[in-house]
Automatic annotation (TrEMBL):
Catalytic residue positions: 23, 60
Catalytic activity: Cleavage of hydrophobic, N-terminal signal or leader sequences from secreted and periplasmic proteins
NCBIfam families for this protein: sigpep_I_bact
Gene Ontology biological process terms from the UniProt entry: signal peptide processing
Subcellular location: Cell membrane; Membrane
Name of the protein in question: Signal peptidase I
Highest taxon, organism lineage: Bacteria
Gene Ontology molecular function: any one: signal peptidase activity
Keywords recorded for this protein, A-Z: Hydrolase, Protease
Enzyme class: hydrolase
Domain Peptidase S26 as annotated: residue spans: 1-151
Cellular compartments per GO CC: plasma membrane
Length: 161
């Protein structure tokens, strides 16, 4: 019975994954272990795990949702023309460094709004992240789930919003 419960939790509720690379630093440290929850509704700024067309796993932050326009101007995010604060970036930001160069969704993708069934994602370590600026939109079918916890290293254990 205990094995059955453990397998249910492992495969249907929360699934652990090791973080490779620094694209989500400082939010997620390299070699940290995270736990994600499959089958959950996504919102702006959720951290998600997804796979690209080659099957490579990525962990990134949802920036724009289906039907939204997106732009960055002077290192500030605008969704549908409204400024949106990215408070999670403050932790590791150098005052003289531009985290996100100016761009519009149209200039990066050739479309003005995020298509239905897709998300625009960025890594928190913007200058060093392979994300939607390089590979385009993430299909909701490619999303494995929402990252909920950091479980290792022990001094970094936390619940993610």
């Amino acid at each position: 019975m205990a094995l059955g419960i453990a397998l249910f939790i492992r495969y249907f509720l929360f699934i652990p994954v090791k973080i490779e690379g620094r694209s989500m630093f400082p939010t997620l440290e390299p070699n940290s272990y995270i736990v994600y929850e499959p089958y959950t509704k996504l919102e702006r700024f959720d951290i998600i795990l997804f796979h690209d067309e080659q099957g490579e796993a990525f962990v990134k932050r949802v920036i724009a949702l289906p039907g939204e326009s997106l732009s960055y101007l002077n290192d500030q995010l605008y969704i549908n023309g409204e400024h949106i604060e990215e408070s999670f970036l403050v932790k590791g930001k150098n005052n003289n460094q531009v985290n996100t160069p100016d761009f519009t969704l149209d200039s990066m993708t050739g479309v003005e709004v995020v298509p239905e069934g897709s998300y625009y994602v960025l890594g928190d370590n913007r200058p060093r992240s392979k994300d939607s600026r390089m590979f385009g939109f993430v299909s909701e079918m490619a999303v494995e789930g929402k990252v909920r916890f950091v479980i290792f290293p022990f001094n970094e254990i936390s619940i993610l919003p």
